[in-house]
Design a protein that fits this description.
The complex is a heterodimer of chains A (95) and B (205).
Chain A (H helix, E strand, L loop, with lengths): L5 H29 L5 H23 L7 H19 L7
Chain B lengths: L2 H9 L14 H29 L7 H4 L2 H26 L3 H31 L8 H29 L4 H4 L1 H31 L1
Classes of the chains: A mainly alpha (95), B mainly alpha (205).
Chain lengths: 95, 205
Amino acid sequence: MSGHSEEAIHKQVKIYIRVFAALAILTVLTVGVSYLKLPLALAIAVALFIATVKGSLVAAFFMHLSSEKKIIWSILLLAAVFFFFLLMYPSWHPL
Amino acid sequence: MTRSRRVSEALIKHISHPHPVTGVTNSKLGVWCFLASEVMLFGGLFSAYILLRTGVPDWPHGHEILNVPLATLNTMVLITSSVTMVMAWASLELKSLSKFRLYMALTVLLGLAFLVVKAFEYGHKFEHHHFPATNNFYATYFTLTGLHGLHVIGGILVNAYFLFFGIKMWEKNPEQFTGRIEASGLYWHFVDLVWIFLFPVLYLL
């Protein structure tokens, strides 16, 4: 993301402000939902869904992943596969 | 091409211009590899948290024993610091060093504000004799937030270096300096991203 035209950067800045607003709203939303005292499974699903949306916004726009090269994506895909294995491992019951 | 750029390009190739094979600068590739390893570091701890939590019939609810309003404030602080960080980088792309200074200073200050709030939270827990050894909940809480806090401290140090000392590079090699800010930004956004998951997992569920 270097050597971009001034116009392109100004456009980016507008997107950053919108992403900021979305992140703030989603933060208020996830805290608000937590006061509803939903059943645990549903609460976990909603909280993780909102966190994933927020995380994706940060990664896609602030970290420029939406316009990043293939090699960066492939590194992250590899990390994601191992990360998924790490998270699923505790609930793996072979017997 | 200035002398310093000639020297740095001769010693380490493709730090300001994309490598012909990968299409990205080596610095960016390096930071992303580092962040991938960070995913595994935090992933292992998240995994341990799931194992500990699902292994017992009762697990305390974060919102009953932790301070949700303070953590919400800290979430906002960190999100805002991510915006000021990306604005610091955008300012360099727009060739405005004064705006870079402003946004980078804000990023460092917001990082410090996050730590002050966190220290306040920790102090409150210690006052009530809640330590990592108290139970598994506090063990995971202190380990995860502690490791995250260390990452915040690291980010503040790097950003403060670029604000006060590293900024000299702008005169000689603005492209490389912009690349450095983008790289430290990637790290800072990652630290924000980790908190975005830590916050609901520890405080809200």
